[in-house]
Design brief:
alpha/beta, 2,3-Dihydroxybiphenyl 1,2-Dioxygenase, domain 1, globular
Length: about 130
Amino acid sequence: MNQRLTLISLVVDDYDRAIQYYTNILGFRLVEDTVLSETKRWVVVKPEGEPGTGLLLAKASGEEQQSRIGNQTGGRVFLFLHTDDFYRDYNKLKNAGVEFIRGPVKEGYGTVGVFRDLYGNLWDLIEPEGQSE
């Protein structure tokens, strides 16, 4: 069997606001922005250098989905962003106004810091051990 994870749906409040944040602040690239209807778009962003998995920015529809914006995992770290240079990306994000709530700290698996995105979702920024010299 040959399978792979291609997209993770991230519930957002507004397509353009989310695109602006993930591209201009986090430095992701906009892969697709296709209008599906008057109220729905197919919007995919990916980190630079990532050929595989992307985020599908899905605008909340209805009260239940809106209640999940920023808390899709009940307050746990939700997404894990690997980097080849932790402090380069950490400083870039901090300078762009991204709030780090933990770290940086050196762990057995690498250097890690936890940040909140635009909506409050928690992310680990990780440089895996042995990634750079």
